[in-house]
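re: ur question from earlier - yeah i can do the single chain one, its not a big deal. heres the input i used so u can compare w yours
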Amino acid sequence: MERPGIMSQKPLSGLRPFERVRNYILDPDHDIAGKGGRLPTMRDLAGRLGVSLATVQNVYRALKEEGAITTRVGDGAYLSPALLRKAKGGDLRLFCNRPQPMVDRSHSLQSGYYGALMETLMHGRHTFDFSVLDDRSDPTEKARALFRDGELDALLIFPFSPCQPLIDACDEEKIPYATIHPANAAASANFVTPDYFDAGYQIGKAAHAVGHQKIVFFSYDRPITSSTGWALLGGMTNGLLEEKATVSLERVPLNFEKRDEEVTASWLKEHRRNLPQLIVCHRFNSYRFVLEALAKMNVSVPGEVSVISRDADEKQAAAAGVTRLAIPYETVCRTAIDLIVRRIAMKGEPLPGIRVPLAFTGGATTSPEFNRQLGLR
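and the output i got, formated as tokens:
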């Protein structure tokens, strides 16, 4: 397995004096690791490498500012705990945050990602010592302290609960991290997400192609607070605008899962004489309430109304053949780990966000022509 190293090994000959000293200190194969990480005195190292004392002093100063070495009064300089651990062949230490349990069943989305993350860490190309960030105290300060002590090398952040302070702290400290889904609508870097925008765009274009005139989006109360919500809705809008479609697009907010069934049934009954041709369900498993209410009203699906779900209870949705987005959990997690490894090598410098293509599956709740437009066969 590939293990992210602290640097690529290079021969010391032919390097400039500053680089020669720096590479010697950071080289994981030399004998500093075997001496508890204690560095030679600056004068000894200057004589050993044939460079000036001033050069060694400059290197020590630079590495101390980077956190690569620490100094102890009266006892000399040492490799940081993280570098010493890596020099001895230890795995990098990856933490993830602990999102608060959700009041609705969207935690099934979390479960999908957690399972895929474990699979990636156990069988992926990179090996890590993995832990969950203890949230009994302030996770932000905990992450800062662990990183400064060399006990944390990177964070994988799940933005299923407020996490912007943690992200801000990582940016300030240059802690390498990646988020699963963007943390907010303005995020442009350091995330990996299924491409909900493109999926929405495909839905919008397909709706226009089959002649749908009315679309309803069942969503969380404020989709702007959900990265998947604003991306899916924004993609649909762009797809319709590109086709210059004259379409009614309405959003129905759902607030609490225990009332979702009631709100859904009430809205559909109220609009019985002017039902939409397409209902897109963003809120987890709201497709069930839609299908149940339409069945009680003797409305055929997909004959009169087509239904698409963002994600769903996979077993139930698959059994019913619900048209839905197939979330590539393992691909997202594997890509996020690769992004983290790259950021570790770049010492926390930001990298552009990555969107993983989404596919549609099912097809029983959308018309054959709509399915062809979505690439379903």
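The chain has three domains: 17-87, 92-194+329-356, 196-325+360-374. not sure if urs matches, ping me
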